[in-house]
UniProtKB/TrEMBL annotation:
InterPro entries, per database record: Hemerythrin-like
Pfam families in UniProt: Hemerythrin (PF01814)
Domain of life assignment: Bacteria
Organism, as annotated: Tigheibacillus jepli
Protein name, per record: Hemerythrin domain-containing protein
Amino acid sequence: MSGPALRHADSHSAIHEAALNEARELTNLLDRLVNDNILDKALEVAYVIVEHWQTRTLQHAASEESGLYKELVESDPSKKDAIIELTRDHDLLRLLVKEIKVLLQNKQVDDEVVQRFQALILVDQLHNEAEEKILPEH
């Protein structure tokens, strides 16, 4: 069973918004470092951002998939297609993080890495909006 914060739109939205705002701030910092060609520091920041996505958003996604999503489908089978779509969003986030990690292993930190982090933000933002539409209001 998922915790109460995951089951209610307002508190769930707050969890999403906090993590997404942090990701935006870190990605903006990375973009500035890459543009200023401060690549050693940019590489450090990129690893921090990867850790952020893994520990905040992807860990949250795993909790949703193992608890909340199953509960939502059990209580309302008509939400099954929406849950499949939301799970696919999580898979896209995982894929992007995996690609970024490969690029960083090769010490590559450039616009391509920044663009993937920006894609993570966009996919997560759209995902959060869709998810909040199917959560109970209180």
